[in-house]
Amino acid sequence: MTEKVVLVDHLISEIKKGAFQSNKKLPSEHVLADQFKVPRMVVRKAYEQLQDLGYIYSKQGKGSYVQDSKIQIPLILSGDVSFTEKMKELHFPFQTITIFCEEVPFDQKIFQSLNVGNDEKVFKIGRLRLIDELPIALHTSFVAQTIFPEIEKDGPNISSMFLYYKQRGFLEFGSNSSTLNVIFPTPNEREILQCSNLVPLLQVESECVDKNSGQVLEHTVIIYRSDYFTYVI
Amino acid sequence: MTEKVVLVDHLISEIKKGAFQSNKKLPSEHVLADQFKVPRMVVRKAYEQLQDLGYIYSKQGKGSYVQDSKIQIPLILSGDVSFTEKMKELHFPFQTITIFCEEVPFDQKIFQSLNVGNDEKVFKIGRLRLIDELPIALHTSFVAQTIFPEIEKDGPNISSMFLYYKQRGFLEFGSNSSTLNVIFPTPNEREILQCSNLVPLLQVESECVDKNSGQVLEHTVIIYRSDYFTYVI
DNA sequence: GTACGTTCACTTGGCAACAAGATACATTGT
DNA sequence: ACAATGTATCTTGTTGCCAAGTGAACGTAC
Prior knowledge:
The structure is a homodimer.
Chain A: H1 2-17, H2 29-36, H3 40-52, E1 56-59, E2 63-66, E3 73-76, H4 83-89, E4 94-103, H5 108-114, E5 122-131, E6 134-144, H6 151-154, H7 161-167, E7 173-175, E8 179-183, H8 187-193, E9 201-210, E10 216-225, E11 229-232
Chain A binds a DNA duplex (30 and 30 nucleotides) through helix 3.
Pfam families (chains A, B): GntR, UTRA
Keywords (chains A, B): DNA-binding, Transcription, Transcription regulation
Protein name (chains A, B): GntR family transcriptional regulator
């Protein structure tokens, strides 16, 4: 066990140092096992963990190779600027696609924060954020039909939630205190964000309120791939 | 590979549900392999990953058992209250011990943020935060000797940095924009925080400034175990 | 009856041999 | 000469067997 961890630590440090950058090929399991005087099984376990972490990939008959290193995006978490505006400022080739708009079953926490009864309809709108075609965040907005009656029909075609709200008379927005959590992705989230199961996600949960009336417009859950972001608060 | 992931997902969900709470013993590798109709090796890999994640532990000859579930601590990240005050408010059996006070070699980023030249002495003071005797965060303060000449001698005995600063004429503190990162622990951090290598850590980096003069008093790096905290910003 | 030792059934841990994919190179047939 | 095919030797992936630790059941000596 401790031998595997030593190997993993060493390899991650080498990868980050760029030691394998020339051809990006890692030493074969047999060679590394001889070098470190450990059974091949230990090297295999280390390589497998590096795969799960997204550092390398292995191909039977060929070898193991380091994954392309990832971009690091500084992300301003606070403030009331929209995600799109934040990204445009940074000149990243940025894109958003709406991937679902569907009614959600009753959920104590969400319904309460939206201040609606359990017989009301609440929709969740999922918008996937991509940079360079790579999915890097999933933005889920929970919206009550009582506030936006046409949300079911409009949902799939909204390009900017903020714009949508503005067009309906809500001019200035704020967000109350956000909660942060570090989570591992569910199978569904893994598929959407195209990451392995050991990539930690930063989950930010907050509410968007209309500054004028104080009304909660949406309950928001955003999950960011933590391997792409540095957060600034 | 995908079989392992399915198993890991399933087991984590069962553990969180408390399905094994009665005796906390997981099914033996052989039994689980039969149930899911997969080779025992797959179960072994899944169990090993759960060990690395800190969910379970295995004992040769006995079996595999779920780890005690962890407390969840709501943590206010913003504001200028000290960590100690935050914890006392929440009535956790809280404790801090200073574990190191040593000079650090030149580091561009740190020295620049402290506004000192590369021939000046800078000390890092490490304070371990414990709740119920469990290490849950490591608070590292980088302090320049030019500002606090006695820091090398005083360092090991400082109970509260804020108090130390106040006693030296700095009355009101603020912090500039903090950066957040999700990282995995280094070997050293694993030993200090007594966690396995797949426990994500939240790293918060900021500066403590004297509101009066605007002078940077310390460069701060705090790492929190993400499995113990929910962060509020 | 009791204390002690043995066996046995079950657990996780480890390993060596084998399977299977990839590639370079030699061999062979035309 | 050239193309197709076999072959040797790399690579990673899989499997099955045995080692080692544990504890309960059992047997036996006293």
